[in-house]
Write a structure and sequence with these properties.
single chain, alpha+beta, 17% strand, elongated
């Protein structure tokens, strides 16, 4: 059996970043063969991670990479089990390198990343950190030409990243619009839109949301009534998707009937009806204003929607612009976290 020296242990530890006692143990098992010992460490690191497969990786960080000329941007979410690990420098470097790899290679999906040479590096790095870590998802947006404007934002906590893309009338407008798109990306990070426009909603989803939202407003009105405060209008609908031509025609007929009942002079109806219809639309599009980016009230000017704010910013530049896509990633979004029974866990370890 070959003698295992302190120098050998030090060399293996330096190469693998594994604990010293583990390095000594595998060197003894491998009879001093450095490559075989490194392979044993790799296997055991992976096995250690595999034991954690039933744990939920819902913490972590997002990464953002944007081209210097704003022609391309990538966001990626990498999850860990604990918030503590997300503060680890090795984990932070893994997030940066993974995002850069995706930016540079344009993989089709997570499996393509993990099946590549980089995937091996990812797995080996995870083994060194010693916790369940996963590349969950990523997204990339690219500008087809110089009339497309893009910008992005990553929140200071490293848990939310957004890319926003707009089609403009000219390269001049696209370049001038970048600051506005950065602000829109910041808006999206805070307001959590789930889709670009109400046109993207699934009709079945809109239908399922309608009843619940109406009931919620009714219950809110009960409390407002108790407090003797003004009540909210109870809507019939929740999305512009539902406001068909027939619905709008009926709404106008109802407004005219009310005006007639109130004995308002017909000559002023045309001045009143547009405002009443706008109020009807406002009351009946709560889902759009909550979840569709273009229809949300812009945080920097709540008198405008995001779409209107971008249009106004482009107009100041002497052009036109329309947001055509965005990606928003937030760490752990949609993941159901496992609630640990600490007492049961301790009991299990003592048995």
């Amino acid at each position: 059996m070959a003698a295992v020296t302190a120098a050998m242990v030090k060399e293996l530890r330096s190469a693998t970043d594994a604990p010293m006692m583990d390095c000594k143990k595998v060197l003894v098992e491998a009879d001093g063969d450095m490559d075989k010992a490194a392979e044993l460490l790799k296997e055991r690191g992976i096995a250690k991670a595999a034991k954690k497969a039933d744990r939920v990786a819902a913490e972590g960080l997002v990464g953002l990479k944007i081209a210097d000329d704003f022609s391309k941007a990538t966001v990626a979410e990498i999850n860990s089990e604990t918030d503590f690990v997300s503060k680890n420098e090795g984990f932070q470097n893994l997030v940066l390198k993974t995002t850069e790899e995706i930016f540079n290679t344009n993989p089709s999906d997570v499996a393509a990343v993990m099946g590549s040479e980089f995937g091996t590096y990812f797995t080996e790095t995870v083994a060194k950190i010693g916790e369940k870590i996963e590349l969950r998802r990523f997204g990339t947006l690219e500008a087809e030409d110089d009339t497309v404007a893009m910008n992005a934002y990553i929140h200071s906590n490293g848990r939310i990243a957004v890319i926003v893309k707009a089609k403009c009338d000219s390269a001049k407008t696209a370049q001038g619009l970048r600051d506005t798109l950065k602000q829109v990306a910041m808006h999206a990070s805070a307001m959590k839109p789930t889709t670009l426009s109400y046109k993207d909603f699934d009709p079945e989803y809109v239908e399922s949301e309608t009843k619940g939202r109406i009931e919620a407003i009714k219950k809110e009105n009960e409390e407002l009534s108790r407090l003797k405060k003004p009540l909210k209008n109870v809507p019939l609908y929740v999305s512009m998707m539902q406001l068909t031509e027939d619905v709008m025609k009926k709404a106008e007929e109802n407004i005219r009937a009310v005006l007639k009942e109130q004995n308002k002079p017909e000559k002023i109806w045309d001045k009143i009806i547009p405002g009443q219809l706008a109020r009807f639309i406002d009351d009946n599009t709560t889902l759009d204003k909550e979840q569709a980016l273009l229809d949300q009230s812009y945080v920097l000017d709540d008198k405008k929607t995001v779409a209107e704010a971008v249009e106004a910013a482009a107009k100041k530049l002497g052009g036109t612009a329309e947001i055509v896509d965005f990606i928003r990633l937030e760490v752990g979004e949609g993941i159901e976290k496992k609630e640990d029974d600490f007492a049961a866990e301790v009991a299990a370890q003592m048995s």
